[in-house]
Amino acid sequence: MTPTESIEAQQRQAVIAEALTWLGTPYHHHGRLKGVGVDCGQSLCAIYEAAGVTAPIDPGTYSTAWHLHRSEELYVQWLERVGAVRTEQPQAGDVALFRFGRTFSHGGVLVDSRTVLHAYVHQAVILTRLDEAPLAGRPVQFWTLWPAVNVTPTPAVQASALTVLEA
Fold it and tell me: If residue 96 lies in a helix (H) or strand (E), which one and from where to where?
């Protein structure tokens, strides 16, 4: 293992460890306080910052229903702004981004090849397998903050959470 691969492995483990500390935090739109309230976007910002993978991230303000009435891919723009790139070979620590409404508007941390940690509306930060509700069958993209992995520079046909498991 090269020094770069070792650093990446350590960072990925730090992301997973930090993500798991958010389990059970209640859902709260635009919240960002562990144990108190968080939404899916803010949880990702907090997790990757605390793990030392990104600088502080401020996604700005956003409506609870932005993904229902607009086609603008805000979440994708946020990911690109911090240097994330699409990958067809996701690993633990990468971002899983799901289509809800008109856009890819719900994200979480891939904690292993089948499980996502995410803040889900009217619930909390939870662990969900890719093959169970509410994620099963939804179009999904995977994004990585470690560009050395196999990435997809241009948009590809969207997989669904179920087809990822079958691959």
Answer: strand 95-100
Which among 136, 134, 123 has a CA at the least distance from the CA of 166? 136
DSSP, res 127: E
Contact 104, 98 (CB under 8 A): yes
Contact 23, 38 (CB under 8 A): no
SS3 28: coil
| Pairing mode of beta strands 32-33, 85-86 | unpaired
Which residues is 124 bridged to in the sheet? 26
Residue 16 scores a pLDDT above 60: yes
pTM of the model: 0.85
Q: How many residues does the chain have?
A: 167
